[in-house]
Write a structure and sequence with these properties.
The complex is a heterodimer of chains A (541) and B (215). Chain A has 541 residues and is an all-alpha fold. Chain A has a single domain, classed as Cytochrome c oxidase-like, subunit I domain (Cytochrome C Oxidase, Chain A). Chain A is built from 16 helices and two strands. In chain A, strands 1-2 form a two-stranded antiparallel sheet. By secondary structure, chain B is mainly alpha-helical. The chains are: A mainly alpha (541), B mainly alpha (215). At the A-B interface, α5 and α6 of A face α1 and α5 of B.
Chain lengths: 541, 215
Amino acid sequence: MKAEKLDYPTEPRRHYLNADYGVMSWLFTVDHKRIALLYLGTITVMFFIGGAAAVLFRLELATPQGDVVISETYNKLFSAHGIIMVFFFLIPSIPATLGNFLVPMMIGARDLAFPRLNLLSWYLLVIGAVFALGAVLAGGVDTGWTFYTPYSSVYSNTFVVVTIIGVFLAGFSSILTGLNFIVTIHTMRAPGLTWFRLPLFIWAHYATSMINLLGTPVVAITLGLVVLEGVFGLGIFNPTLGGDPVLFQHLFWFYSHPAVYIMVLPSMGVVSEVITCFSRKRIFSYRFVAFSSIAIAVLGFLVWGHHMFVSGQSLYASMIFSLLSMFVAIPSAVKVFNWTATLYGGSISYATPLLYGLGFIGLFTVGGLTGVLIASLGVNVHVHDTYFIVAHFHYIMVGGALMGYLGGLHYWWPKISGRIYPEGWAKFAALIIFVGFNLTFFPQFILGYLGMPRRYHVYPEEFQVLNVMSSAGASILGIGYIIPMIYLVWSMRYGKPAGANPWGSTGLEWQTPSPPPTYNFEKTPIITREVYDYRKQESHG
Amino acid sequence: MAEVPRAVAHHFDDFAQQHEASTLGMWAFLVTEIMFFGGMFLGYLIYRGSYPGAFAEASNHMDIILGTINTAVLIASSLTVVLSVHAAHEDKQKALLIFLALTVFLGLVFLGIKFTEYAHKFDEQLFPGMNFRYDGENPRHAAIFFSFYFAMTGLHALHMVIGIGIFLVLMVSAWRGRYSKHYFTPVEMSGLYWHFVDVVWIFLFPLFYLLGRHS
C-alpha cells in the first residue's frame, strides 16, 4: 500500500490499522494504539463542543449589554466550557492519546501492562462524557467548573449531581490510565533501557501519572461528598448544618491545582522530544529536565492555597502558599532554559511540530511569569477573580498544554497514520492559532488589570474595545483549530506515505514501520545507547 | 515461561514479569484508595478538632458490642485470606476453596451486622438529612459526626461488597482448578485488596466507636 519500494509488493503490510476491520474490532480492541485513536476521536468531539460554548459566550461579550443570552444561560455556558475542556479534553488530551500510543513504543514494549484496564478507562471517559453532556442538554449547570459549595449543594437548582457523576467517572478513567503508565514504565522496559535512557516524554508521563494517582482520588471523594450532601442532605460542607464550605475549596484545589500540571507536564514532554529532534542535538542537561518534571509534580501538591487568598484562609498560611507557589517557577524555568540551550547551536529545521514547540515556550513563559505575579499576595487580592486570572490560566492551558498537544499530534502523525500531513497548510494553521490565541487572551490581561471581573455577561462600556479584540481573536482561533482537523483527516487517505522515520529521529518509536505492527516491534529491541544521541546517528549515516 | 503459557498474557515476556506488574499495579491502586478514603479521614479529623465535645458525645450512640464483634470478624477474615493465598502457593486446591468460602462467609457476616446497626440508627432517627432527631447538646455538630459515620462506613461497606464479589469469582476459578503454585496472582492481588479494606476498618473503628467514649 505504500509508495516505498517493498520486497513483497503484492500483499499490503499488516499493521495495527488493517489488522482487523469492523466496528467491533475497535470497540473491543485491547491494542493501546487503537485505544489511543478511540480517545483521539472522543476528545476531539468534546473539544469542539466545549469550543462551541466558548463561541457563544464570546459572542455575548462582544457588546457590553446582555443581548444574546440572559445571565443564567451565560453561567451555564462558561460552566459547560470549563467542565468539558478541563475534564474531558485537557486532562485526557496528551496522556490518553499520544501517551497511550507512545509509552509502550518508546520503551520497547508490546502493549501497556493492563490492556483491558486501558480499554475500561476509555469506556469510563465515554460514559462520563455522556453524563456530562446529558446534563448540558437537560438544562446545564451553573456552578462554574469548580463546583464550589454552596452553589453546587444548597443553592443548586441545576443538574449538578449528574455532571459530578460524569466528572467522577472521567476522574477514574485518568487514575487508571496513570496506574497503567506507572506499572508499564516500571516493569516493561526493553533490555538495556535504563531510567536515564528513557525519553523525556516518558519522564513527563511518569510525573503526570503520579499526580493522577495521588490527586484525582481526593477530588473524586470530595465531589462524592457533594453528591451525598445533595441527595441525602448530609451536612459536611453546609454551614447551616454545621459544615464548612471552605473545606470543599481546600479539598478541591488539592487536586485541581496539581491538575494543571496533569495538563501541562505531558506537553513539556512533547516539547522536549520535538526540540531535540528538530535541532538535531542532545537535550541540554537531560537529568535536570527529567527531574524537573518530578519536582513540578511534587511541588504542585503544596501550593493549592494560592487559590484561596480571599477565602478567609489565615494570613500565615497564605504567605507560605505564596512562597511555595513561586518555587514551582524554578523547575519550570529549568525546562525553558534547557530547551533554549538545546536549540542554541543546533541545526534547526522549522517544521510544524517545532513551530508549536517554540509557541509553547513563548506562551508558557508568559503564563508562567504571570503565575508568579498572581502568586504574590498583594497582586492576587487586586486581580482575584478578574480576567487577569482567566488570561493567565489560558496561557498555561491553551498556550501551553494545547500547543504541546497539537505539536505532538503533528510530530507523531506520520507514525500514527503512516502518512505525511500537508506541511504548508500545517504551518499556516500554526500561525493562525498563534495569532488568534494572543489576540484572544492578551487583551484579557489588560481587562483584568483594569478590574473587569470574570463570570459576568454585562460589563461597563469602557471595556468594549478590548472585549471585541478578544472575541475577534477567538474567531480566528476557532478557524485555526478547524484547519488541522480537516487536513489531518484528509492526509489519512491522501497524504504521502511517511516511511518509518520521516524526521530522522533517534527515538525508539521511529525504529519500527509506520503505522506500527500490532505488537509494535518485530522483535524486542535491545537498547545500547542514550535516547537523544544525534551525533552518533550522523556518523552511522 | 513455558511452564504456564496460558496464564501469561501476550504482552508479557514471562510469568515473573506479569506477576511483578500485577503486584505493582495493585499497590498503586491501593495508594489511590488511601487518597480516596484520605479525603474523608481528613474531613473527619478537621471537624473532630472543631467540635470535640459534640463528637465525643455522639460516639456514645455507637453500638460498641456489635462494632467489636465486627472488628473481630474482619480480622478473622484477613486470616482466612492469608491462608487461602498460602494454600494456592502450596497447590492445596481443597484448602484454597475452603478458605475462600470462609472469607466470603465472614464478609457477609460483617455486612449483616453492619446493616443491623444501620437499621438501628434509622430507627433512632440518627440519619442526618431525614428527620434527624438528636437529644444531646449541639445536634448540628452531632449531625456532622453521623454524616461522616454513614459516608465513611458506607464507602467501606461498598468496598466489602466489591471484595465479596471478587472472592466469589475467585471461588469459581478455584473450583475449575485455575490456580496452582505456578499461577496464583489473582488470589494474592485480591488478598491485598481485602487486607486494605480491613485496615480501613481498623482506623474507622476507634475513630467512631472508641475515641471520647464515656458511658
